[in-house]
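Example record for the data management plan.
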Amino acid sequence: MKKIALISQDSLVNYSLSHLLSQRKEMQIKHVLASIDEEKIRKLRARRQLDLLIVCVSSCKRDGLELLSHLRGIAPHIPVLLLSSSEDEHFLLNFIRCGCKGYLDKYASEHDLVQAIETVYSGKHHLPDTLRQALQSEQAPLPHEQLSKREFQVFLKFIQRKTIATVARELNVTAGAVSVFRSRVLRKLNFKSNADFIFYALQHHLLTLPDTQCCRAPG
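Corresponding structural encoding:
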């Protein structure tokens, strides 16, 4: 039986998928997590309690950046299926480039879900034709894909306009270490200042403009 962990903050999605797969003997959701906990996921994998991850992400890039910051450390070892209602091709491609093996629309059928899980588990890509073609057309890695895992995490934090102190706290490292990683990112991406982080992020569809509907504050 394939043991699946679901990463999602949507209680309705969690219940629906868990109930749907509970009817099957060959695959079941064994763990539901609100966010990616790399240490916990590695322990589950080591204990053979995890074979595949389903990651549910909204169409807003704000929560997507946090997921991206962890995926590169997990995806090389565990097959990941992305579940989203986003139709933004660039948004979805960022996840595929970071290691997700497949993408499935939230409104897909039970048959499509099972097929996607089987395909991703086997090590193959499960992608719509448009995403597959877009991925194949981009042969050369993007500049930020050349960064190390830690450099990439710092890069994504600065995209969100976070201070060095905040980044250090969230990554559980010293402020000095963050400064070192920031310097490496600046050098590798040929950046001159923090403004270049934002410009690059917008250019490569890692961020939307502040007035985009999905990222507006409620009320």
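Summary line stored alongside the record: The mean pLDDT is 84.
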